[in-house]
Design goal:
- It contains four helices and no strands.
- The protein has a single domain (3-88), classed as Methane Monooxygenase Hydroxylase, Chain G, domain 1 (Up-down Bundle).
- Helices cover 86% and strands 0% of the residues.
- Helix 3 packs antiparallel against helix 4.
- It has 90 residues and is mainly α.
- The relative contact order is 0.10.
Length: 90
């Protein structure tokens, strides 16, 4: 069973919290709050997204690379991590 399925409830909770943070950014802009407040709110949401990405990456490495049952599975898991890194650094 995939680690995302095993931790589905926890991961969905984090995503909902992130959604709330992004909505707070929208509210701050709509209410014409100061730029520092908007940027801090935005930074908090970015941090939450980053933390979720790190958690998923860690679980992916442990499950699909270190814990892979074959060299081919290990290589595929590592290739997926490399692809995600390339996309996230754009």
């Amino acid at each position: 069973m995939s680690h995302t399925i095993q931790r589905k409830k926890s991961l969905l909770h984090r995503v909902r919290r992130i959604r709330g943070q992004v909505e707070a950014v929208e509210r701050a802009l709509a209410e014409e709050r100061g730029c520092a407040e908007v940027m801090l709110t935005l930074a908090a949401s970015r941090g939450a997204i980053h933390a979720l990405m790190v958690e998923l990456l860690d679980e992916h490495l442990r499950s699909h690379v270190a814990g892979a049952s074959s060299e081919g599975d290990r290589r595929r898991g590592a290739d997926e991590v490399a692809r995600v890194f390339r996309m996230s650094l754009r």
